[in-house]
Amino acid sequence: MESRDKSSVVRHFSNVEDPRANDRRRKHKLADIMVLAICGVICGADDWVTIARFARDKKRWFGQFLELPHGIPSHDTFRRVFMLLNPHKFAEAFVEWIRALSEGSKGALVALDGKTLRRSFDRVREQAPIHLISAWCTKNRMTLGQYKVDGKSNEITAIPKLLELLDLRDCTVTIDAMGCQKSIAGNVRDAGADYMLALKSNHGDLYEDVKLYFETQASHDFAEFSGTLHQTVDADHGRIETRKYAITADIEWTGADAEWKDLAAIGMVEATREINGKTSLEQRFYLTSFRGDAKQFAELVRGHWQIENCAHWILDVAFREDDSRARAGNSAENFALLRRIALNLLKNETSIKLGVKNKRLCAGWSEEYLLKVLAIGG
């Protein structure tokens, strides 16, 4: 593995500050530990024991480009290092790597959503499961960053901190109902991005007014609607789903434009599902600074769910994230970031047409393919 350019995965993560700087017993270089851990997770390892075993079995190969002054670290060393490693510094290195690696996210949709690491709870220490906010770029198909939600707080305080890490200029940021806050709308605009926020009943009168407005327009078939409309129909395995999208810049009557920074429009999605002769109806409402038509609005709404389908679901199925018992110190948060590094690399390696789970197997079997995956990062 030759020295690579500024986007090299090895270069970026080997520069993370070593938490053992003052430990005289330190035997293994942090750079070696980081590379071994990243490669282990890419190749199917889901815990510290398996990472260490993988590294031992590949010791001769890793010895071609890593120093390994005292051989391969034990699983206890991997666990201790990532337990102590500052997760914010690790996350900052991750964000810098993505900025160098990607083609840029200008004009892209960036979806923010939360995910709980279900097995990270610790009854003995009375530690609740860790909850992470992640940002997913649909253009680059990559996780852009993550931030841990404080156990004594919630997503409302974590989202602004994640936004501060990211370069969001000219992007559109979509967030579910938890992030539908005036302050967060301001944070997104201050970052140079547009926002699209899911509006729910916790916003009382505003929600009821927007809901009544669109229901009234729908009851008259949008005959006097001063906005744009778009409809999609999907049919699959006996299910027919019709989605109607409506968006309007007629918002002065709400009074919300004076309170929500640069609010430009309100939107509605009405989804009708027909399954086995039974029909269900769901309506969702949005506040947005985005200025576009209903077709563009539909693309943003559908694009938001890519973070669930292309990131969170794969992390659970291909990386067994929900089964991970890493919990001591910072290990759960840091292992989550290792998984996201691996996911970004594997999804963007396209020389073979396989799912992420099978790509992990291929990387473990073939050193040549592992090098291809790592080359995506540099």
Word description of this protein:
Among the domains are: 135 residues, no CATH class; 104 residues, no CATH class. Helix content is 40%, strand content 20%. The protein has 14 helices and 9 strands. The chain has a 9-stranded mixed sheet with strand order 3-2-1-4-5-9-8-7-6, sandwiched between helices. A hairpin with a 2-residue loop joins strand 6 and strand 7. The protein starts with 8 loop residues before the first helix and ends with a helix. The N terminus is likely disordered.
Briefly note the structural class of the backbone: alpha+beta
Uncertain runs with pLDDT below 50, 5 residues or more?
Answer: 1-7
Number of strands: 9
SSE topology string: HHHHHHEEEHEHEHEEEEHHHHH
Helicity level, as a percent range?
Answer: 40-55%
Residue share in β-strands: 15-25%
Cα end-to-end separation:
11 Å
Q: What would you call the shape? A: elongated
Count of helical stretches: 14
Mean pLDDT across every amino acid position: 89
Major sheet size, sense and barrel closure: 9 strands, mixed
Looking across the biggest beta sheet, what order are the strands in? 3-2-1-4-5-9-8-7-6
Radius of gyration from the alpha-carbon trace, in angstroms: 23 Å
Secondary structure elements and their pairing?
Elements: H1 9-13, H2 30-42, H3 48-57, H4 59-62, H5 75-84, H6 87-101, E1 109-117, E2 130-137, E3 142-148, H7 155-165, E4 172-175, H8 182-190, E5 194-199, H9 204-219, E6 227-236, E7 239-248, E8 265-275, E9 278-288, H10 294-304, H11 306-317, H12 331-347, H13 356-365, H14 367-376
Parallel strand pairs: 1-4, 4-5
Antiparallel strand pairs: 1-2, 2-3, 5-9, 6-7, 7-8, 8-9
Helix pairs in contact: 2-3, 2-12, 3-5, 5-12, 6-12, 13-14
